[in-house]
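User: Hey, my collaborator sent me this sequence without any context and asked if I could get a structure. I don't really work with proteins. Can you help?
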Amino acid sequence: MEPTLRPGQLVVGLRASKPRYGSIVFARVGDKDVIKRLVVDDGGAKKLVGDNANGSHHVKLSDTSQIFARLVWPQTKPVDT
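Assistant: No problem. I've predicted the 3D structure and written it out in structure-token form, which is a compact way to encode the shape of the chain:
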């Protein structure tokens, strides 16, 4: 999630029943927990994306059930999706 979050940085999440698009969320992808931004692409597909344009991988979601929390600290600005 660089440059928004740094490796090793302390983060706090809050369990959320309905994640907000454009916000940073915590999700279970396979056997790993990841921190990514939740977006909807031009075709309407839900994705988890990193903020690092040069080295981030993206994950397509069939639904948002993999998301278990949203970032509440440090505060970040949502991006338009």
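In plain terms: Residues 37 and 50 are 6 Å apart (CA to CA). You can pass these tokens on to your collaborator as they are.
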